[in-house]
Design brief:
388 residues, alpha/beta, Rossmann fold, 2 domains, five-stranded mixed sheet, globular
Length: 388
């Protein structure tokens, strides 16, 4: 495999994006030595560590007899206790206990469903925060239509009675749960542990995908997780040959208030564009260099026009907003779009709505960008649609 060569060959680019790690993961995970010392005081014997290649926001310490400890940066620590094993004494109160394998999960972190699906783990998901029509992960939608996964209410208003009736043993939430702290507290008061997924804070696109190892540990599918992630690394080996062609790409959406929403320089989407051989058209905007806020920034249409009017490609993000079906749909949002170079040259593209839920195959989107940038065979594109 060329993976290591690709990784080290791209290292200078990684240094450019290193501040993003500070943005997303400000508090370092507990140092290995500290974890080991504490583990020994808890009667656990260290037996190795899970190898993470790109993920910066999570670590897994392994112990004898199948125990594992997951440390999530800027959040919490979890001790995975195999069923049949006793919970060690003297576990600090701030470490949450998860009995594994988890078998009756309420999944409210929608971007994680594809990772469970990729390792054959949907039978461990019994409840969902989305209804069947809202899933773009085919197997998840089919499982809900067959009654194998039940709708248990959105993340902020779950059906607590259903969680209890279904013997829910784990709730997996996105960081959106922190906008509804009472909900998280109520779930925990029911005796259901809550795990908060922070994969969206990973600065590298493959870092998000690598959280598949976290879920593999939770449901006893570590080998499947390792194998799948290795397949994604192999897919990206070909990026060695993706040199910059000088083409610029603006990735954006327009919200219901007619405000343009764009990605900061440190976000994983600009990184994907560069890995595909393009240049993020908004990289020179001072506002987007600020790393103290969220991964997105709101701009007025006038500001966006000034920044992206000469971009070679416009890519509309339909993973959150409603998709576009034609260039006229874009111009209908604001007449200024008619003056954009990409509009005049017919280089307006739109993402598939499945994009946000497709955490498992992020490598394919990079390939899609590359095909777009090089005028390749559009029939091989998965997540992008060329508008006319």
């Amino acid at each position: 495999m060329k993976t290591n060569r690709w990784l080290y060959g791209f290292f200078p680019g990684f240094l450019v994006f290193f501040p993003a790690v500070l943005l997303f993961c400000t508090d370092p995970v507990m140092a290995a030595g500290q974890v080991q010392t504490q583990a020994e005081s808890e009667g656990l014997i260290p037996a190795g560590r899970t190898d993470f290649v790109y993920a910066q926001c999570v670590e897994i310490q392994e112990y004898e007899n199948g125990f594992k400890r997951i440390d999530v940066q800027d959040d919490a620590s979890y001790l995975l206790v195999p069923k049949g094993e006793e919970i060690p004494e003297n576990i600090p109160e701030d470490i949450r206990i998860l009995q594994v394998p988890s078998e009756r999960i309420y999944l409210a972190a929608t971007a994680s469903m594809a990772l469970f699906d990729a390792i054959g783990g949907l039978d461990h998901i019994k409840m969902s925060s989305l209804k069947a029509p809202d899933w773009y992960v085919d197997n998840a939608r089919k499982a809900m239509e067959a009654g194998q996964i039940l709708y248990a209410g959105k993340y902020s208003e779950p059906d607590f009675e259903l969680l209890l009736a279904q013997n829910c043993d784990l709730a997996i939430e996105s960081t959106m749960i922190y906008h509804s702290p009472k909900t998280k507290e109520m779930i925990e008061q029911l005796g259901i542990p809550v795990f908060v997924d922070r994969s969206s804070y990973e600065p590298h696109p493959l870092g998000r995908c690598e959280w598949i190892k976290v879920y593999g540990a939770m449901i006893g599918k570590e080998k499947e997780a390792e194998s799948f992630f290795d397949s994604q690394l192999a897919l990206l080996d070909e990026l060695d040959d993706y040199s910059s062609g000088g083409k610029t790409v603006a990735f954006f959406s327009v919200n219901s208030s007619n405000v343009v929403v764009v990605r900061r320089n440190s976000d994983y989407v600009p990184r994907m564009i560069e890995m595909a051989g393009g240049t993020y058209a908004l990289s020179g905007i001072e506002l987007l260099k600020d790393e103290s806020g969220t991964s997105t920034v709101n701009m007025t249409m006038e500001e966006f026009y000034a920044a992206a009017v000469n971009a070679d490609y416009l890519v509309y993000n339909a993973s959150i907003e409603a998709p576009l079906y034609s260039i006229n749909d874009l111009i209908g949002k604001n007449e200024l779009f008619a003056g954009f170079k990409a509009v005049k040259e017919g280089q307006v593209w739109c993402t598939d709505r499945y994009l946000y839920q497709a955490t498992d195959i992020v490598g394919q989107l990079i390939r899609d960008f590359h095909i777009m940038l090089t005028g390749g065979d559009e029939s091989e594109i998965t997540f992008l649609k060329h508008l006319s």
